[in-house]
Design a protein that fits this description.
By secondary structure, the protein is α/β, with parallel strands linked by helices. It has 4 helices and 3 strands. The protein starts with a helix and ends with a helix.
């Protein structure tokens, strides 16, 4: 998970990249505090998420910040671009994550794609996939300048 990697780099005093990009990040494996699950996502569903959370976390508490960055202090992280679709099962937790971190001073940009689903960028025939990757390139280029 990109945000957990940034946290680990920061905490171990390893130089951070100029920016980070997260595509449909799963920021809260505990699913605590979610208002809703978007059931229009053709890729993921709540049962799969629960199963994957157990596989990923193992014996570690799913509220551990390195498992669920939702619970982390993002202070001193570089700018982050998050892309997600509005038919994304993770949309609600991504929005909550961004809202929670607005006051930390970390620049987090949310790029929501109307009617699209979890990791739509991997479908090369979607015109939105190409446009989203172009937006990522612009974001990274601007942060490196």
């Amino acid at each position: 998970m990109a945000i957990a990697t940034l946290l680990s780099l920061r905490d171990n005093k390893i130089p951070l990249p100029a920016c980070a990009v997260c595509i449909s990040p799963w920021v809260n494996l505990s699913h605590t505090g979610e208002k809703n699950h978007n059931n229009n996502d053709p890729i993921l569903n709540p049962e799969l998420l629960n199963t994957f959370a157990l596989y990923y976390a193992g014996d570690t508490d799913t509220t551990d910040p390195l498992i669920s960055p939702f619970f982390a202090d993002l202070k001193d992280l570089p700018p982050i671009l998050i892309q997600a679709g509005t038919n994304e099962i993770l949309e609600d937790q991504i929005k909550q994550f961004i809202e929670k971190n607005r006051l930390t001073g970390v620049e987090i940009e949310l790029d929501l794609w109307d009617g699209l689903f979890h990791v739509f960028q991997i479908i090369p025939i979607l015109p939105e996939a190409k446009r989203s990757l172009e937006k990522i390139a612009v974001f990274v280029t601007n942060k490196l300048a």
